[in-house]
Amino acid sequence: MNETPQWLSPAEQQAWRAFVRVHQKLSARLGRDLQAHSKLSGADYEILVALTDTPEGRQRFQDLSKTVEWEQSRLSHHIARMCKRGLVAREECAEDGRAAFVVLTPAGRRAIETAAPQHVATVRRLVIDALSPDELAMLEQISNRILDQLDDMSP
């Protein structure tokens, strides 16, 4: 059944395109900044943050995939590259031979601890300082509403 698309109004299209441009430009700028100051990619940083968010610095591969919302194959390839650089290690799961853990290494912990202050300063400069406290609260509210919508529609 082919439904006629409900095209965006000019105002909706302007808002959507502005949102997409912000996302693209901000992601690119943050990625370049991370690479320049810490030799980490945005993807590396995302994985390291996810691992440091757990007290033991480790997550089951499947859980990490859900945390960062990556396909298993993308995560597997990226983790292999990070292992070669010594940022993370892969450990087999003793309870389940089919499962594996991704573990933060001391080098990975040093890398994230070195990168984080500059990254936070860049986030502050590019986003936080550009908004008033009320605008920042509105950004959080809008972002959470969209995230709730996405979570409700997840397969």
How many DSSP H or I helices?
Answer: 6
Largest sheet: 3 strands, antiparallel
Q: So, the CATH homologous superfamily?
A: Winged helix-like DNA-binding domain superfamily/Winged helix DNA-binding domain
Quick check: average pLDDT?
Answer: 94
Q: Within the largest sheet, what's the order of strands? A: 1-3-2
The CATH class, by name, is Mainly Alpha
H/E element order: HHEHHEEHH
Describe the global form: globular
Number of strands: 3
Distance between the termini: 21 Å
* CA radius of gyration: 19 Å
Count of spatially separate domains: 1
Strand content: 5-15%
Q: Which spans of ≥5 residues are poorly predicted at pLDDT below 50? A: none
Q: Could you say what the CATH architecture is?
A: Orthogonal Bundle
CATH topology: Arc Repressor Mutant, subunit A
Structural class: mainly alpha
The percent of residues in helical segments reads 55-70%
GO biological process, one term: response to stress
Protein name: MarR family transcriptional regulator
Pfam families: HTH_27
Domain HTH marR-type: 12-148
Set out the fold topology:
Blueprint: H1 10-38, H2 42-52, E1 58-60, H3 61-68, H4 72-84, E2 88-92, E3 100-104, H5 106-126, H6 133-152
Antiparallel strand pairs: 1-3, 2-3
Helix pairs in contact: 1-5, 2-5
Write structural notes for this entry.
- The chain has a three-stranded antiparallel beta sheet with strand order 1-3-2.
- β2 and β3 form a beta hairpin.
- With 155 residues, it is mainly α.
- The protein has one domain: Arc Repressor Mutant, subunit A (Orthogonal Bundle).
- It has six helices and three strands, in the order ααβααββαα.
- It is globular, with a radius of gyration of 19 Å.
- It holds the Pfam family HTH_27.
- One of its GO terms (molecular function) is DNA-binding transcription factor activity.
- This is MarR family transcriptional regulator.
- It comes from Nonomuraea polychroma.
